[in-house]
Design the sequence.
């Protein structure tokens, strides 16, 4: 019979704290119908685990393997890695992708749009 090794609560808390430290973006259009949050910036669970492991090593603290990190991420958090396709607003996207001079022209409309969104 195989026995599972129990992971110390302090280590589990360090995983949760690391996941919570990653900035999230709220869904734009579908926020009324979902509580899911999204991580921007091209991260993946594997990349987050590598960052976590590096931080733990530099602080001389124990770390967990990828499977444990991924299990906590997947079962305790409601986070996705990209905004849904229907969640991409034309005004927000054009402002985000505009060059500086164009951004200056769009600034007032964009700020008004953000106020209306909230």
Sequence:
């Amino acid at each position: 019979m195989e026995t599972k090794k129990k992971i110390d609560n302090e280590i589990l808390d360090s995983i949760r704290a690391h996941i919570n430290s990653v900035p999230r973006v709220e869904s734009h259009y579908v926020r009324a119908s979902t509580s899911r949050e999204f991580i921007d910036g091209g991260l993946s669970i594997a990349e987050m685990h590598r960052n976590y492991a590096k931080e733990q090593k530099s602080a001389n603290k124990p770390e967990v393997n990828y499977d444990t990190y991924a299990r906590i991420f997947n079962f305790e958090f409601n986070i996705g890695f990209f905004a849904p396709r229907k969640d991409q607003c034309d005004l927000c996207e054009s402002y985000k992708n505009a060059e500086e001079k164009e951004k200056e022209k769009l600034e007032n409309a964009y700020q008004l749009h953000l106020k209306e969104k909230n």
Q: What stands out?
A: The beta strands are 24-25, 37-39, 79-80.
